[in-house]
Design brief:
heterodimer; A: 6-stranded mixed β-sheet; 11 strands; B: mainly beta; 7-stranded mixed β-sheet; 4-stranded antiparallel β-sheet; about 0% helix; globular
């Protein structure tokens, strides 16, 4: 069974701090996506990465896909209360169109 | 208007009831998905439909029965559910292909009494 493990599971930080969330697997993915889910809503796509070593930036968020395409990280600079939510990574195995979701990281940013 | 709409948002039912969840997408996508989201477990893929044809059934118990009459609508028929089936059920849609983004609805919160 393919498994995407995210760490940490929970994170509570003060506004203005930096943080990194990790997504790791033993499987190789053809692409990997990051989503954010807020209470009472469905996940919303933040980014898709497809190339090993790829780095994408979305304002204060920086996403990296590992060289071997088995892992990814999400770094948030100067976190704000609006960043609060559940962060999910999802990997697509080669030859399939379905995504396997990670275990999730619940982030709370305190004002 | 939201791209993917799910109804109802909340549902409470007994174990002997029959109910249906509905999902509608207005994005012109050709693939639709049902996911189950439980506390402390990863989002679990249940069913995938491509061009109205079911292409994935992730060992889901037969008490869950999906239906996809066209590429814009997806149903999940429920009967004789168990308490452990209480969860958030999410519908998503996408274009078929690698690295395509999935657009999720806001889910139906299901509680089995």
């Amino acid at each position: 069974t393919q498994l995407l493990e995210q760490s940490p599971q929970f994170l509570s930080i003060q506004e203005g701090e930096n943080l990194t969330v990790y997504c790791n697997s033993s499987s190789v993915f053809s692409s990997l996506q990051w989503y954010r889910q807020e209470p009472g809503e469905g996940p919303v796509l933040l980014v898709t990465v497809v190339t090993g070593g790829e780095v994408k930036k979305l304002k204060r968020l920086t996403f990296q896909f590992g060289d071997a395409r088995k892992d990814s990280s999400l770094h948030i600079t100067a976190a704000q209360p609006g960043d609060t939510g559940l962060y999910l990574c999802a990997g697509s195995l080669s030859g399939t169109y379905k995504y396997i979701f990670g275990t999730g990281t619940r982030l709370k940013v305190l004002a | 208007e939201t791209g993917v709409t799910q109804t109802p948002r909340h549902l409470v039912m007994g174990m002997t009831n029959k109910k249906s969840l509905k999902c509608e997408q207005h994005l012109g996508h050709n693939a639709m998905y049902w996911y189950k989201q439980s506390a402390k477990k990863p989002l679990e893929l249940m069913f995938v439909y491509n061009f109205k044809e079911q292409t994935e059934n992730n060992s889901v118990p037969s008490r869950f029965s999906p239906e996809c009459p066209n590429s814009s609508h997806l149903f999940l028929h429920l009967h004789t559910l168990q308490p452990e089936d209480s969860a958030l059920y999410l519908c998503a849609s996408s274009q078929i292909g690698q690295a395509q983004p999935q657009h999720f609805g806001d889910g139906t919160r299901l509680s089995i009494l």
